[in-house]
Amino acid sequence: MTKLKDLKAHLLKAPEVRRHYDAMEEEFALIVSVAKARQRAGLSQAALAKRMKTTQSAVARLESGRGLPSTRTLQRFAKATGHKLKISFEPLRKRG
Q1: Which residues of 16-38 are buried (b: 16+ CB within 10 A; e: fewer)?
Q2: Distance of alpha carbon 50 from the chain centroid
Q3: What is the DSSP string of 13-46?
Q4: What phi, psi does 41 have (nearest 5°)?
Q5: What band does 96 get if pLDDT is binned at 50, 70 and 90?
Q6: How many angstroms separate the most distant Cα atoms in the chain?
Q7: pLDDT of residue 95
Q8: pLDDT at 94 > cutoff 80
Q9: pLDDT value, residue 2
Q10: What's the CA gap between 46 and 60, in Å, rounded?
Q11: Residue spans per domain, the chain
Q12: How deeply is 80 buried, as exposed, middle or buried, from its count of CB atoms within 10 A (0-12, 13-18, 19+)?
């Protein structure tokens, strides 16, 4: 059976796959940040949902990346987990 990391490495050798993967880098980082913040807060998805006045399935969608959350949702998430939401703009790296 192929390991996930080996499959990922194999797929990312294809330029088209790599381009799409790299284009989603920020979304992946957001998903990881959301999951880590909930875990640092020591909350289950259900407990977080209660604090946010939403459903556990909505929290699961937020953590899965199935759609991009609004800044309002991210603010509610930050407050419910005891974090401060910080959004920044960084200059693009020059290539070439």
Answers
A1: eeeeeeeeeeeeeebbeebeebb
A2: 20
A3: TSHHHHHHHHHTHHHHHHHHHHHHHHHHTT--HH
A4: -75, -10
A5: low
A6: 49
A7: 67
A8: no
A9: 82
A10: 9
A11: 54-83
A12: buried
pTM of the model: 0.76
- Give dist(CA 20, CA 91) in Å, integer: 20
Tell me the Cα Rg of the chain: 16
Q: Which two tokens mark 76?
A: 């509610």
Buried b vs exposed e over 61-76: b needs ≥16 C-beta within 10 Å?
Answer: ebbebeeebeeeebeb
Burial of residue 2 (number of CB atoms within 10 Å: 0-12, 13-18, 19+): exposed
- Can you tell me the distance from the alpha carbon of 69 to that of 61, in angstroms, rounded to the nearest whole number? 9
